[in-house]
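Can't paste images in this forum, so I'm doing it all in text. The chain is below; anyone willing to post the predicted structure tokens underneath?
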Amino acid sequence: MNTVTRRSAMLAAMGLPAAMGALAAAAAKEFWDEKFPEDWSAAEIQRILNDSPWAQKGEVKFNGGPGGAVGFSPGGFYSPADQVQYHGSSAEKSPGAFHAVVRWASAKPVCAAGKGTPDGASQFYMLAMTGDFPDAAKPSDSESVTAAAERGDMLRTYTKLERKGDAPIYLDHIQPIPGGEMYYFSRMDPITAANKEITFTTKMGPLEFKAKFPLKDMLYRGKLEL
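Text version of the structure:
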């Protein structure tokens, strides 16, 4: 916690840089460390859920390489093997039209903003990805058992939390949620502050998703919260 003392305030008034830095750091404290969750405004709640250290816009790239199909079809599916329907309109979309927000649904500030802790948060790092993209957790009616198994294997291969200094944590399972998917990663090998940055990555056919989370920013009331 940054504390401004009378001495540092006086030194800042004299123009000394160190003291001015202390004042700036204290002033930069975020609302989630200053206010109780019940006092957060609607705009602050939306910021936690959509534009905060725990919620980042995903980078979406089009790549026809390993892990999926080579193109899109007009019916809102990508093919041939992995027939997974898009969210939203069934009209054909260009790769540039897709967008996603990746959110740590198991993190305490996100739980507070959502007014509830999801089941499994104590056992798993839970990341929700919502937006406009192929639905990996909800296959089409025409998908075969073999194709479903291949899709699951693909997701477990390409979906992971990359961390500096340690091995990646691979996907345990996935569930559909309104507007997207919930990804579950085991807490058995925990993420620590020493990992510095976590990169969520996944692949759905020709689409690759990535979101980076600097751990130094993911402190809630002085504690790393994931």
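Residues 1-5, 8-14, 18-27, 65-95 have pLDDT under 50 and may be disordered. The first strand starts at residue 55 and ends at 57.
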